[in-house]
Amino acid sequence: MIRPARPADAAEIATVHMATWRDAYAGLLPGEFLACLDVNEWAERHRGRLADPAEGTFRLVLESEGQIGGFVFGGPSRDDFPGGEVYAIYVDPARQGRGAGCRLLAAAERKLAESGFTDASLWVLAANRPARGFYESQGWHGDGSEKAWEVTDGVSVMEVRYAKRIAAWSGLQGGYLSPGA
Question: What's 12's domain CATH number?
Answer without folding.
Answer: 3.40.630.30
